[in-house]
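I hope you will forgive my troubling you with a question about protein structure. I should value your view on which stretches of the chain appear to form regular backbone elements. Here, with my thanks, is the record as I have it:
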Amino acid sequence: MPPRKIIIDTDPGQDDAVAILLALASPDEIEVLGIAAVAGNVPLPLTAKNARIVCELAGRPDVPVYAGCDAPIGRKLVTAEHVHGKTGLDGPDLPDPVMPLRDAHAVDFIIDTLRAHAPGTVTLCPLGPLTNIATAFTRAPDIVSRVQEIVLMGGAYFEVGNITPAAEFNIYVDPEAADIVFRSGAPIVVMPLDVTHKALVTKARNDAFRALATPVGIAVAQMTDFFERFDKEKYGSEGAPLHDPCVTAYILRPDLFSGRHINVTVETSSELTLGMTVADWWRVTDRAPNALFIGDIDAQGFFDLLTERLARL
């Protein structure tokens, strides 16, 4: 099997960084066509910078990085420095990137790439707000049918919200964009909080990263050391959930995950539940299924895969 072609759309973010590293560590299975930065965890100048820092950490300055949308569709940007720190990659002391941003806008890169490749051969992997993807779909509706699959981190059902009582951060930041994507008709796989909160970096798992004794292993351990403080205090959990690497792991090992093909609708008008992913888990409506909503993960298998791959960088 040739490697699967993907575009990573991201707002790094420590867990975004680990998701990118996992992809770049798996060239036999994944070909990263490019990275599209979007405003989310931190503003766009930082997410575009952080994506390049991660590429250089992986020894892959050849991977093209594009800056995308700097604000949601019709809303003010909400960021998450309270989780990820002022830079978005607080924890390790990583040098500023030398590799330049590519000149094109990330939305144009997404459109042009999907048009340039055969239909059904490029997978989109959004790790942050869906602004870039929705903007591309709106500007170029012809590309929707060319997408092989969208595997995204966002939303929640049983775990409800992490930025409001009802909403997960990525969807809440740009609910209109999420609504466009979920209504697009493209095949979608969703990694919600319901599954990512089961991918916890325990002390033993973080020690395994650090024991790699490589710049990548040490940096990942330091990232997790930093952002786990927030989740431990908030949830009383034994470690931080690695949300975004679940997307990459699904591309590599879908057998580690299980879920249901159901209808997922995004709330865009309610002040109370804005950004909620209304997932028809129990199939109680007649709304047609539009997404594979993941509900469970083999957490140890996930961390074994992650540690083994990071050791390659």
Remarks:
- The mean pLDDT is 96.
- The first strand starts at residue 4 and ends at 10.
- The chain has one domain: 4-311.
- Residues 4-311 form a domain with the Inosine-uridine Nucleoside N-ribohydrolase; Chain A fold (CATH 3.90.245.10).
